[in-house]
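Project outcomes to date are best conveyed with an example. Our students and postdoctoral researchers have been running inverse folding experiments weekly, and each run begins with a structure described purely in tokens. The record below, which covers 290 residues, was selected by the lab manager from last quarter's runs and is presented without edits.
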């Protein structure tokens, strides 16, 4: 487990000559997403696949920004208004400012954030770029959402000096990741397993691609599958079933287009909306464990 005085305080570029990226020849969803967001951490294979996705789904870049905006609003709400200071962010992605811990620690400087992704490239960037506040803590583990016990049993959560105290509320973020989980993987069961050890008052924040508004989303999913990247869009009803099937209660305004989700109030267009209904990439939802 990395300490704050170790790689947490490092800043600088991601992969280097001494720590190269091994699979530059195959597109990876984390680097394609970075391309949509205008980042610089991608290779030719990612750019080629991302460009084809943008042809099939011209709104993918605005959709990615709308999704990031949802994530930002949700972290701010939980840290500022609910006093949550412990976060698990699964499917972290290549660091993109502001990252979860930066917003959380702005409101709760002592906040602790555990990032998880199954892509070793994300780990490399995270080690270089995710730096905690002095009072808080940021850790990163490489693990797969489809093996939740690997996350729950990791020393960061189950060791003698865990990063997070699971007897207090935690916010579990699974933002823009469950559309990479197929039905065969048992998505509701995965969520239930991850929420089970969390204390009452813990929250779930989830966003999910859907073709309900923009047919380009499903065309893009088909293209991902053709490149052996798992992709399963879900309807509004399926997203709601996914969350409620995990035994947790939706927080108002329930399952909403990401750009209309706003905590505790009727759905409305977010002030910084970067997407219209016709361009909607999918749904955002927050739920609370009783
Ligand atoms: C579209 S990005 C989302 C990044 C960030 N959560 C956001 O919403 O801005 C999806 C991330 O999920 C990761 N991912 C995909 N499948 C995963 C799995 N089975 N386990 C862990 N991470 C996964 C990818 O590597 C990628 O970094």
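After processing, the design step wrote out the following sequence:
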């Amino acid at each position: 487990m990395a300490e704050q005085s170790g790689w947490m305080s490092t800043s600088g570029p991601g992969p280097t000559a001494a720590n190269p990226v091994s699979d530059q020849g195959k597109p990876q969803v984390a680097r394609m997403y970075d391309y949509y967001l205008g980042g610089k951490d991608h290779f030719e294979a990612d750019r080629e696949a991302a460009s084809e996705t943008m042809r099939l789904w011209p709104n993918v870049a605005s959709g990615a920004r709308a999704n990031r905006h949802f994530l930002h609003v949700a972290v701010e709400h939980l840290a500022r208004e609910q006093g949550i200071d412990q976060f698990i962010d699964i499917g972290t992605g290549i660091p993109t400012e502001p990252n979860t811990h930066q917003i959380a620690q702005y409101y709760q400087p002592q906040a602790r954030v555990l990032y998880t992704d199954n892509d070793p490239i994300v780990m490399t960037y995270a080690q270089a770029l995710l730096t905690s506040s002095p009072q808080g803590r940021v850790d990163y583990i490489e693990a797969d959402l489809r093996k939740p016990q690997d996350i729950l049993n990791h020393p960061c959560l189950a060791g003698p000096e865990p990063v997070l105290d699971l007897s207090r509320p935690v916010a579990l973020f699974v933002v823009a990741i469950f559309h990479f989980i197929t039905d065969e993987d048992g998505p509701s069961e995965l969520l239930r397993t991850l929420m089970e050890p969390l204390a009452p008052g813990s929250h779930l924040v989830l966003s999910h691609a859907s073709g309900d508004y923009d047919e380009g989303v499903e065309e893009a999913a088909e293209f991902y599958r053709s490149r052996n990247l798992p992709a399963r869009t879900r309807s509004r009803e399926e997203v709601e079933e996914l969350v409620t099937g995990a035994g947790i209660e939706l927080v108002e305004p329930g399952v909403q287009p990401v750009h209309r989700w706003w905590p505790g109030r009727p759905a409305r267009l977010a002030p910084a909306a970067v997407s219209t209904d016709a361009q909607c990439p999918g749904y955002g939802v927050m739920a609370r464990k009783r």
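The chain has one domain: 63-212+235-288. Residues 29-30, 33, 67-68, 71, 91-93, 117-119, 122, 144-146, 175-177, 180 surround S-adenosylmethionine (CB under 6 Å). The training component of this project remains on track.
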